[in-house]
């Protein structure tokens, strides 16, 4: 067993920032990550980091834009904390040497981004995430923080109380991908989950192959609710053949969208008569698909994004990376041709329910970054708001986990008795409601022997259960290949839980997921080696995708309104009376339960009045 | 690097074939450098015959020069020296950071020029050898 | 963990000298070749001719410099090549000694030859 | 790139108005037609698995634990050839369709994570960045040379990471501006100077291609030296650290080992002019040392 004060799971932007913060609090920190930190998907972020840095801008404006973009489904305390802290965190990055793009006077540049009332997106070329990730990792190296890289975390070690609010987290169980060793990691102070996105639940996504929602699913099965899972952002400009992202920066710099008729449809068809291409992402993504569905798409599939008029100099100065991406992954020369683009899954607004200190309802378990939901992005995330979220809430989670004194949180977590609950009437969760039948071993929270509750025993027992589970998986001689289950799931999700959602489709998706769960019970791992067994790893990840996809679909089916990224065919309006509340899904030991928690629109400094959202 | 087993194909074959210009330049420069320093030692030992007096010196030199093999080797030496000089100049430019983009072209140029100079000097070198 | 290289031994001097000698050698070697193969043909070289050239002080100095720089350049080049192959510890020490001794012998012998020719 | 429809006249006048007639559009239409045809054909002829064009992928296999794989060998996979297919796509296909134990690192699919540097047809390349159509067939995929193989295409990266860390890859300014929200100033020119060097994705291709690094285990290697360059040339870097860093790169197994073979520069997927950066640091080291005399 390994032992540290704070264990950070994940080495992306959020995890690295959390580790640095915990280290600065004096804790002995270790990062456990399935990819070497510099391989994390934060490195793929292109556009930039929002922060109110300049005269004429203010954190209040940033907060307001964020709340409006979120379609009023965010919690004000999270939004305020975020907008207030983002500037110092961004300057902190600069002080750590991040190579931001610069103005003539040597200050960091900012550019306009969709949904922002001020050009406050700080950037480093079109590779902002790459530079941020590397800058943070450099600071981790500088501090000598221990990194267990290529260790796959598969469980959190949590005590077995009936009420999730009373559970304690004492560590994690991870498995060394290179050697197959399965070990417990005891965390004396806290565990921070920072495992990133879940895009692999869909088949056209900007996310990496490693973005399989592990942290979300692990915390979920340990008893933490998932919040607002239906809120999935589809990015309007991804390359059709691969899903590689073309940054919003292109539109920020003045790029234009055309349909097959050569019309600038954002204006001509009135999707966003003020902001045009720079409207919020959900608006643009729907506009594009509407164009395609109405027959004005190119080849019935996509539209064009044109940046040629910006001129070679400006493009190479600020968007050079885009030229490479378009060339390498679509064979298009962005200086000479318009680039084909279509919407693709991009970001999960929802995730592990946490408060503004990153705490979940389980004591000692934290989450930060894309896998968490402090309820900052609500129903739609603004471009350039995720990277600052990583550093703002990553740092706070790390600090709190290391035992720093922080004020009483304003956001509540965990299930409570008189919460409003809902039955969907469609089978979900473990097939036949039998959690034990779902594959060889338990799902966290269940594994621990009741007699010995010492933290070490909890961690060791969870590790032992994991060893058994993996042995069982490896012993099976034949069955279903996880890749088949995964691709069926992805197809169904993209067909039914995409930008446009219909009741029947959503129900179909839930049926497909049930079927996938049943098939998954017969899953087997063909590769019997303990050395670098990616077959085994992907098999376990697929299980996580099933849980995550189910919660997404449940939320989408329940929320019968149109808010932010969530569009429902049968319900074409935002229903503020009924739906200013978060959807929550609890695993409930195999019988997922859907319930609600009201959104908080009242902050310390300002109260947010839901207004019509027009761009 | 400690290889835990023989990586046969990966490490041996298929590699030199894929060498790029810069790698070949390095191989040739190394080879010619070693030949030159080898020659320097030989050269000084041949010239050392002068310590035994003019006759020995003259005899050794003309003796050697009358051998066709030695004449051929001299052409080889010229080739080696010319390449080492030309590529050496190329390397000096590289060290100064000049013309890095055309480093492959300058390597090919050194090769071609070496060839031309050697061919052009063959008559001079082989006069009376056969 | 990689070892942090603590013992500071700069390679910049020998690196620079290798380039400086190379620049010098370009000129002298070309001159040498030209003189002894094209102006005078190698097969015509005689003691008297060599002696006559060597007695010119400028030529004598040039040749000694040629010898010294070429020796340094060549031997240092060989040494570098060996280090590039990763030789270390004892083998490296041995290479230093062998190459060092060889170059001293070469230079001494070369100077004796030059002196003999010049008649010093 | 392969199909360039000669369309010069129409293009100049109707560039922005009619993107619909761009060569790209036509190419995609053609592709789509082709794909539809291929799919139809596939259904018709069930007997032969793929009817369209296929390619042969030869992949290096090794697993110290599995009988029959302890001895390195090459496996052949037949993969249907698709437009825009990359080496990584082909590997994924082979894994998902034929042999789920085929092991290789990959994640981002867009040349930023640096996981999938392989030795493809004798050159170090990123799988996700290499179009199959640009390669001779059969396509031979091997793990990066000069590194221990863990399994199949997965190599041991620790040595590479160690060398990167030896270069002290972090920023260490002398003093920071007063006031919490004051950034350090940096000129555009200076940012431009370090720009290319900051692109490194730690893929290890350069190190694997370098003959010197292969022979001399202690050689810092092009990526680590480039990392040092990135900080050394940054005008925000502190004087103290700059000196320390210079000492690290100019010790015996630092910059001097580079023999300007350029193969690192040739293989770098991020087009970083590595040799140029190494050479610049050599000159810098000489200059600094001359100053002390
Ligand atoms: C193409 C693209 C462009 C984007 N551009 C922008 C932008 O311009 N501006 C912006 O603000 N946002 C942008 N975003 C969003 C933003 O980049 C992401 O939300 C953010 O980087 C997520 O960071 P993270 O630290 O939460 O996760 P990641 O960076 O994905 O890191 C996750 C980490 O968790 C580890 N991990 C995962 N599962 C496990 C496990 N089971 N065990 C151990 N370790 C595990 C991984 O190894 C990895 O290190 C973009 C996103 C994408 C996909
Ligand atoms: C005439 C002009 C010459 C030039 C311009 C020249 C140039 C160079 C340069 C630049 C190098 C260094 C290569 C590197 O470190 O990357 C080198 C290496 C070398 N030179 Fe020369 N050189 C010349 C003459 C000579 C002579 C006369 C000799 C023999 C005595 C010689 C022997 C060597 C050797 C042995 C090496 C090392 C090769 C290796 O890397 O293994 N050179 N030369
Ligand atoms: S310098 Fe280039 S080749 Fe080397 S590790 Fe970095 S990106 Fe890869
Ligand atoms: S390949 Fe090696 S020799 Fe130098 S130029 Fe690159 S480091
Ligand atoms: S998969 Fe990330 S670089 Fe190729």
UniProtKB/TrEMBL annotation, chain A:
Residues 486-615 form the Fumarate reductase/succinate dehydrogenase flavoprotein-like C-terminal domain. Transmembrane segments: none annotated. Residues 424-456 are annotated as: Disordered. It is found in: Membrane. One of its GO terms (molecular function) is succinate dehydrogenase (quinone) activity. The keyword Oxidoreductase applies. It comes from the Archaea. It holds the Pfam family FAD_binding_2. It is a peripheral membrane protein. Its cofactor is FAD. Its EC number is 1.3.5.1. One of its GO terms (cellular component) is membrane. PROSITE patterns: FRD_SDH_FAD_BINDING. Belongs to the FAD-dependent oxidoreductase 2 family. FRD/SDH subfamily. This is succinate dehydrogenase. It comes from Halobacterium litoreum.
TrEMBL record, chain B:
It is found in: Membrane. It holds the Pfam family Sdh_cyt. It comes from the Archaea. GO terms for cellular component: membrane. Keywords: Heme, Iron, Membrane, Metal-binding, Transmembrane, Transmembrane helix. The lineage of its organism: Archaea, Methanobacteriati, Methanobacteriota, Stenosarchaea group, Halobacteria. GO terms for molecular function: metal ion binding. The chain crosses the membrane at residues 23-47, 68-86, 106-126. This is Succinate dehydrogenase, cytochrome b556 subunit. The keyword Chaperone does not apply.
Automatic annotation (TrEMBL), chain C:
InterPro entries: SQR/QFR_C/D (IPR034804), SuccDH_FuR_B_TM-su (IPR000701). Its main location: membrane. Signal peptide: none annotated. One of its GO terms (molecular function) is metal ion binding. The keyword Metal-binding applies. Keywords: Heme, Iron, Membrane, Metal-binding, Transmembrane, Transmembrane helix. It is found in: Membrane. The chain crosses the membrane at residues 20-39, 59-82, 94-114. One of its GO terms (cellular component) is membrane. This is Succinate dehydrogenase hydrophobic membrane anchor subunit.
UniProtKB/TrEMBL annotation, chain D:
One of its GO terms (molecular function) is 2 iron, 2 sulfur cluster binding. It holds the Pfam family Fer4_8. InterPro entries: 2Fe-2S_ferredoxin-like_sf, 4Fe4S_Fe-S-bd, Beta-grasp_dom_sf, Helical_ferredxn, SDH/FRD_Iron-Sulfur, Succ_DH/fum_Rdtase_Fe-S, Succ_DH/fum_Rdtase_N. Transmembrane segments: none annotated. Its cofactor is [4Fe-4S] cluster; [2Fe-2S] cluster; [3Fe-4S] cluster. Residues 24-49 have a biased composition (Basic and acidic residues). SUPFAM superfamilies: 2Fe-2S ferredoxin-like, alpha-helical ferredoxin. Residues 172-181 have a biased composition (Acidic residues). Keywords: 2Fe-2S, 4Fe-4S, Iron, Iron-sulfur, Metal-binding, Oxidoreductase. Residues 57-161 form the Succinate dehydogenase/fumarate reductase N-terminal domain. Belongs to the succinate dehydrogenase/fumarate reductase iron-sulfur protein family. NCBIfam families: dhsB (TIGR00384), PRK05950.1 (NF004616). PANTHER family: SUCCINATE DEHYDROGENASE [UBIQUINONE] IRON-SULFUR SUBUNIT, MITOCHONDRIAL, SUCCINATE DEHYDROGENASE IRON-SULFUR PROTEIN. This is Succinate dehydrogenase/fumarate reductase iron-sulfur subunit. It comes from Halobacterium litoreum.
């Amino acid at each position: 067993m390994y032992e540290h004060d704070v264990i950070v799971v994940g080495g992306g932007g959020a995890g690295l920032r959390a580790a640095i913060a915990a280290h600065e609090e004096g804790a002995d920190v270790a990062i456990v990550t399935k990819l070497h930190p510099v391989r994390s998907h934060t490195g793929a972020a292109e556009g930039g980091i929002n922060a109110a840095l300049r005269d004429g801008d203010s954190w209040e404006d940033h907060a307001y834009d964020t709340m409006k973009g979120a379609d009023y489904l965010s919690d004000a305390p999270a939004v305020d904390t975020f907008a207030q802290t983002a500037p110092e965190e961004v300057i902190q990055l600069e002080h750590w040497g991040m190579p931001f793009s610069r103005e003539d006077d040597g200050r960091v540049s900012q550019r306009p981004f969709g949904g922002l009332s001020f050009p406050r997106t700080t950037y480093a070329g079109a590779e902002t995430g790459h530079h941020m990730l590397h800058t943070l990792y450099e600071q981790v190296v500088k501090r000598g923080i221990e990194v267990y890289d290529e260790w796959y975390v598969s469980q959190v070690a949590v005590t077995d109380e009936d009420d999730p609010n009373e559970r304690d987290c004492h560590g994690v169980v991870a498995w060394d991908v290179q050697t197959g060793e399965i070990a417990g990691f005891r965390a004396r102070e806290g565990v921070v989950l920072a495992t990133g996105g879940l895009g692999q639940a869909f088949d056209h996504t900007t996310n990496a192959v490693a973005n399989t929602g592990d942290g979300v699913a692990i915390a979920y099965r340990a008893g933490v609710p998932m919040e607002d899972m239906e809120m999935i952002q589809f990015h309007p400009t991804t390359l059709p053949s691969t899903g590689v992202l073309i940054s919003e920066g292109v539109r920020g710099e003045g790029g234009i969208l055309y349909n097959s008729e050569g019309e600038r449809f954002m204006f001509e068809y009135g999707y966003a008569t003020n902001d045009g291409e720079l409207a919020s992402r959900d608006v643009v993504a729907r506009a594009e698909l509407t164009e395609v569905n109405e027959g004005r798409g190119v080849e019935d599939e996509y539209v064009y994004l044109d940046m040629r008029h910006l001129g070679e100099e400006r493009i190479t100065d600020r968007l050079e990376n885009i030229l490479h991406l378009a060339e390498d992954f679509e064979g298009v020369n962005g200086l000479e041709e318009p680039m084909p683009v279509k919407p693709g899954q991009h970001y999960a607004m929802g995730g592990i329910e946490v408060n503004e200190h990153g705490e979940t309802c389980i004591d000692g378990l934290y989450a930060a970054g894309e896998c968490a939901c402090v309820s900052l992005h609500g129903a739609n995330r603004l471009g350039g708001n995720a990277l600052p979220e990583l550093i703002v809430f990553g740092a706070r989670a790390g600090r709190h986990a290391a035992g720093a004194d922080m004020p009483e949180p304003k956001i509540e977590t965990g299930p409570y008795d008189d919460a409003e609950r809902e039955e969907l009437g469609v089978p979900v969760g473990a097939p036949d409601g039998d959690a034990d039948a779902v594959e060889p071993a338990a799902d966290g929270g269940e594994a621990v022997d009741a007699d010995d509750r010492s933290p070490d025993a909890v961690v060791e027992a969870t590790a032992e259960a994991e060893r058994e589970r993996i042995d069982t998986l490896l012993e099976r001689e034949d069955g279903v290949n996880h890749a088949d289950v995964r691709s069926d799931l992805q197809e169904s999700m993209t067909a039914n839980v995409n930008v446009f959602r219909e009741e029947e489709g959503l129900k179909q998706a839930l049926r497909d997921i049930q079927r996938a769960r049943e098939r998954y019970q017969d899953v087997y791992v063909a590769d019997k080696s303990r050395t670098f067994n990616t077959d085994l790893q992907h098999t376990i990840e697929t299980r996580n995708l099933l849980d995550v996809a189910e919660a997404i679909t449940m939320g989408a089916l329940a929320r019968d309104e149109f808010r932010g990224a969530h569009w429902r065919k049968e319900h074409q309006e935002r229903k503020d009376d009924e739906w200013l509340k978060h959807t929550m899904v609890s695993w409930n030991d195999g019988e997922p339960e859907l319930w609600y928690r009201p959104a908080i629109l009242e902050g310390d400094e300002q109260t947010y009045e839901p207004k019509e959202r027009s761009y | 690097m400690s290889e835990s087993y023989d990586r046969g194909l990966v490490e041996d074959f298929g590699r030199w074939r894929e060498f790029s210009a810069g790698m070949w330049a390095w191989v040739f420069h190394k080879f010619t450098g070693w030949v030159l320093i080898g020659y320097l030692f030989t050269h000084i030992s041949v010239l050392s015959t002068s310590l035994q007096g003019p006759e020995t010196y003259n005899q050794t030199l003309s003796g050697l020069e009358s051998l066709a093999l030695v004449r051929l080797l001299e052409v080889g030496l010229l080739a080696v020296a010319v390449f080492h000089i030309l590529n050496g100049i190329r390397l000096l430019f590289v060290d100064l950071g000049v013309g890095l983009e055309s480093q492959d072209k300058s390597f090919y140029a050194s090769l071609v020029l070496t060839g031309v100079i050697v061919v052009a000097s063959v008559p001079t070198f082989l006069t009376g050898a056969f | 963990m990689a070892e942090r290289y603590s013992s500071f031994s700069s390679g910049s001097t020998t690196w620079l000298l290798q380039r400086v000698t190379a620049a010098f050698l370009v000129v002298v070697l070309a001159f040498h070749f030209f003189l002894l193969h094209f102006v005078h043909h190698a097969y015509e070289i005689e003691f008297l001719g060599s002696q006559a050239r060597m007695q010119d002080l400028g030529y004598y100095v040039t040749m000694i410099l040629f010898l010294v720089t070429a020796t340094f350049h060549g031997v240092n080049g060989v040494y570098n090549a060996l280090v590039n192959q990763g030789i270390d510890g004892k083998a490296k020490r041995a290479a230093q000694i062998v190459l060092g001794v060889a170059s001293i012998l070469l230079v001494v012998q070369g100077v004796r030859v030059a002196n003999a020719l010049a008649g010093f | 790139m392969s199909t360039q429809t000669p369309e010069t006249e129409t293009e100049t006048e109707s560039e922005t108005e009619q993107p619909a007639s761009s060569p790209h559009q036509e190419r995609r239409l053609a592709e789509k037609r082709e794909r539809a045809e291929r799919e139809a054909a596939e259904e018709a002829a069930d007997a032969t698995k793929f009817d369209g064009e296929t390619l042969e992928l030869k992949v290096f296999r090794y697993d110290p634990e599995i009988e029959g794989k302890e001895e390195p060998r090459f496996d052949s996979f037949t993969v249907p050839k698709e437009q825009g297919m990359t080496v990584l796509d082909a590997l994924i296909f082979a894994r998902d369709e034929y042999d789920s134990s085929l092991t290789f690192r990959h994640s981002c699919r867009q040349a930023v994570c640096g996981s999938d540097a392989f030795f493809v047809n004798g050159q170090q390349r990123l799988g996700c960045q290499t179009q199959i159509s640009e390669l001779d067939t059969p396509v031979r995929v091997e793990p990066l040379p000069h590194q221990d193989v863990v399994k199949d295409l997965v190599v041991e990266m620790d040595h590479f990471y160690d060398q990167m860390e030896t270069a002290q890859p972090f920023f260490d300014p002398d003093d920071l501006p007063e006031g919490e929200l004051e950034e350090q100033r940096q000129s555009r020119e200076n940012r431009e100077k370090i720009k290319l060097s900051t692109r490194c994705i730690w893929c290890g291709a350069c190190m694997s291609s370098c003959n010197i690094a292969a022979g001399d285990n202690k050689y810092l290697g092009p990526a680590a030296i480039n990392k040092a360059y990135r900080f050394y040339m940054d005008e925000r870097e502190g004087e103290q650290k700059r000196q320390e860093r210079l000492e690290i790169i100019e010790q015996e197994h630092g910059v001097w080992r580079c023999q300007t073979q350029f193969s690192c520069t040739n293989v770098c997927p991020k087009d970083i002019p590595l040799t140029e950066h190494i050479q610049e640091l050599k000159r810098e080291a000489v200059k600094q040392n001359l100053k002390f005399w």
